[in-house]
Amino acid sequence: MSSASPALQHDVSLRAYNTFGIDAKARLFAPFRSAEELRALLQLPEVQQAPKLVLGGGSNLLFTQDFDGVVLKNEIRGLETLDEQADGTMLVRAGAGESWHGLVEYTLAQGLSGIENLSLIPGTVGAAPLQNIGAYGVELKDAFEYLEAVEISSGQLRRFSREECGFGYRESVFKGPLRGQYIVTGVVLRLHRRPQANTSYGAIRTTLEEMGVTEEPTPQQVSQAVISIRRSKLPDPAQIGNAGSFFKNPEVSQAKFDALKAQFPELPGYPVPGGVKVPAGWLIEQCGWKGHRAGEGRYGVHDRQALVLVNHGGATGHEVRALAEEIIASVRERFGIELHPEVNIM
């Protein structure tokens, strides 16, 4: 402990704070449970002078080296419903340190609909708007109202509307122009009292039929279907180190897609504004990577979902990154498509 800064811990292993289970160290480490505690930390000279990394659930990170700075662990909790709106929607506020899936469960318990398709996504509420999380035809921005964040340089609390967040596919201003300038403390969503089921994407409809749901599904049933699909495809980080989907699904022009489709008739694609989204997992699997193990079996590609890189135990971040680069090169060579990591590589 530093005598000048008792809140700061020194040389802390981050193995328990990242779902890949990579054993990197932070030179300085401090949790915070409120905006006030965060402001106090940001005023410490050691923190002001050091590079900063904000950690939530650590589910979207790959450490390739020790972090020579301060890791600020966001532990701001709290779930509450705010005022019901004139259009029958309800605002729900969540502390940035809450688990995302915990928020989904809370909204379902309140009889609210809008984020059930985002069930079981790992990580915290505060990380969700940074990359505009999405799954099964729904993105965070669809339910987003505003967020609150502390400006690192001034300690001031600022509110960001949906428009100000500049949401895109796995993107926001916090990954672009405002990267490293703000720390999210709370998120407010606008949800519906009347269910608006979205079952058109992926295997949701088929899974609901297998569950015996033949009429319009409830939000809880859609959530159960999504959870079932995710558990069948994605490894539990508590069992196998991973960060979920390692790569973004690439988007290509319609002309490029048509040319590839002529060459690879089985190529799947989903129309998006300006082109077609192609499943990265399919591309990776076609290149023979699914189930691949390297480093004497210590790491590799998941055997049920090629989009997921896994640490079976003892892998370094360097090794996982090198594997990712090999995969990117092979997809580029075969399909002429460039994959980009969804995971933040430190």
Automatic annotation (TrEMBL):
Organism: Hymenobacter edaphi
Keywords of this entry: Cell cycle, Cell division, Cell shape, Cell wall biogenesis/degradation, Cytoplasm, FAD, Flavoprotein, NADP, Oxidoreductase, Peptidoglycan synthesis
Annotated metabolic or biological route of this protein: Cell wall biogenesis; peptidoglycan biosynthesis
Domain FAD-binding PCMH-type, first and last residues per copy: 22-194
Residue numbers annotated as active site: R170, S245 (proton donor), E342
Top-level taxon in the UniProt lineage: Bacteria
Protein's UniProt name: UDP-N-acetylenolpyruvoylglucosamine reductase
Localization, UniProt: Cytoplasm
